Amino acid sequence: MTCADCGEPIGHDHGPRDGWQLEDGRTVCHSCCCADLGHIVEIMKRYAAEPKPATVKTCDECGAPAGSKLTVSPRALCPDCVQRMTVTGAGM
Length: 92
Fold this sequence. Notes:
- The protein is rod-shaped.
- The chain has a two-stranded antiparallel ribbon. A two-stranded antiparallel ribbon has the order 3-4.
- It contains two helices and four strands, in the order ββαββα.
- The chain is α+β, with helices and mostly antiparallel strands.
């Protein structure tokens, strides 16, 4: 059997005798498996370094940013809207 990436015989390096099967179905030698893993690590490093947009939780009723103080059942509601709906008897 030969490596799907480099074409060298599988089982003649430090890896398993039958090679490594990657997530996309390729069977590769140990060296190419390590290279593939290194490529994935580099992609993840770039992804981790990208700025992520801040997510602000908002109340479904009034739209006010509520942070972690939202009541979720079945809607996300801020404490003020929960209080108002409880007092007025409006449907939650």
